[in-house]
Design goal:
The protein is an alpha+beta fold. The protein has 3 domains: about 140 residues, 2-Layer Sandwich (Gyrase A, domain 2); about 80 residues, Alpha-Beta Plaits (2-Layer Sandwich); about 80 residues, Elongation Factor Tu (Ef-tu), domain 3 (Beta Barrel). The chain has 8 helices and 20 strands.
């Protein structure tokens, strides 16, 4: 496949024509033309996901298949979490690191068979991640396939997701645990039906052939119309994930941050066989981290956009990494790297148009009432 994400015209997902038909505002994101919002607007889309359901096109994500006798060895050697713990039918959130412990990408690892895995990576990193995996494959007995262009990914998210999807699905969905999946059919289209998401609500991600994406998208919107399902874009995806404190690659995490600093230490299994970055992370854990990604809220009115300076304990702490005014909570929230001993309740300030807007350090998630916590 051609990896031209960051050059020339943004590429189109298999659902591009659907977005145009629905009047979406399209923006370049990760090398693709993606809907940032539909005519309903970001707030309405956000609220639909929190109260009923929203349907997202996430087909810009990349998918790599790893199969063969050495598949587990390779996936374990390039990820920080332990894929050996996965049963067939289970998925795992993980990270890929470079030698110094910096995060190459965060990803989801699916165990499709004893010797068969799927890695789901971020759109803007497809080319770099593919090169990283190939580089570290060495002489491991595993076959690598980049399936990114053949697979479309739809995310149906919200408390009504199960009710909407079940009549169209060949398999019983209620028994599927969080971060588990089944292979079945949706509206008679072959699909991997995964109980995963990026919103804090119950929901499913559907992996289907790119050629089937439009049909499944239209059928889902039709099936969910009476329940309040609407299409949702990147704007709502961002506000939903930030309310949950979920990291966004390129904002909260990147090659200059480690999982330990990012609050993702639970993804790092130092006791398994060697993996890329393990020694650097082991050393950092022994020495102790100097900074940590923390949540904050503003206590006065303001929109803490990414890049705005943050002041903590009398000095500049670095920029806001992610920030928004939370549609659910009604105040400014965000993330920033603060000294490791910064604690919830500590005061800080975000500099917005030369004014210091006060706030406090907050534990994440900011929003705790999602349907995942039922």
């Amino acid at each position: 496949m051609s990896h031209d994400q960051e050059t020339g015209t943004p590429r189109k997902t298999p659902l591009y024509d659907e977005h145009v038909r629905l009047g979406a505002k399209l923006v370049p994101f990760g090398g693709f033309a993606m809907p940032v919002q539909y005519p309903t607007g970001i707030r309405a889309e956000h609220e639909a996901v929190r109260t009923a359901a929203g349907l997202f096109d996430v087909s810009h994500m990349g998918e790599f298949r790893v199969q063969g006798p050495g598949a587990l060895e390779l996936v374990s050697g390039i990820t920080t979490n332990d894929p050996a713990r996965l049963s067939i039918g289970q998925a795992q959130y993980s990270a890929m690191c470079i030698e110094d412990g910096g995060i190459q990408d965060d990803l989801v690892v699916y165990r499709l068979g004893e010797d068969r895995f799927r890695l789901v990576v971020n759109a803007a990193n497809i080319a770099a991640d593919w090169a990283h995996v190939v580089e570290h494959a060495g002489d491991v007995d595993a076959e690598l396939t980049d399936e990114s262009e053949e697979i479309a990914l739809l995310a149906l998210q919200g408390p009504a997701a199960l009710e909407i999807l079940q009549p169209l699905a060949s398999e019983a969905l209620d028994p599927i645990g969080f971060y588990h999946y089944v292979e079945g059919r949706v509206d008679d289209v072959p699909a991997v039906i995964s109980r995963t998401g990026y919103t804090g609500e119950d929901g499913f991600e559907l992996y289907v052939a790119a050629s089937d994406a439009g049909r499944v998208w239209r059928r889902l919107l039709e099936a969910g119309e009476s329940t309040g399902l609407i299409p949702a874009g990147l704007g709502a995806r961002d506000t939903l994930r930030l309310e949950m404190g979920y990291a966004l690659y390129g904002n909260d995490i990147d090659r200059k941050t480690t999982p330990l600093e990012a609050g993702l230490g639970w993804l790092v299994k130092l006791d398994k066989d060697p993996f890329v970055g393990r020694e650097a992370l082991r050393r950092q854990k022994e020495e102790g981290i100097r900074r940590r990604l923390r949540g904050f809220r503003l206590t006065e009115r303001g929109f803490p956009r990414a890049g705005y300076p943050v002041r903590y304990a009398g000095s500049e702490a670095g920029p806001v990494r992610s920030g928004t005014v939370s549609p659910t909570l009604g105040y400014g929230i965000g993330t920033a790297y603060l000294p490791a001993d910064a604690a919830p309740g500590d005061e800080l300030a975000v500099v917005i148009r030369d004014e210091e807007v006060p706030g406090t350090v907050e534990s994440m998630p900011f929003y705790r009432d999602g349907s995942l916590r039922r």
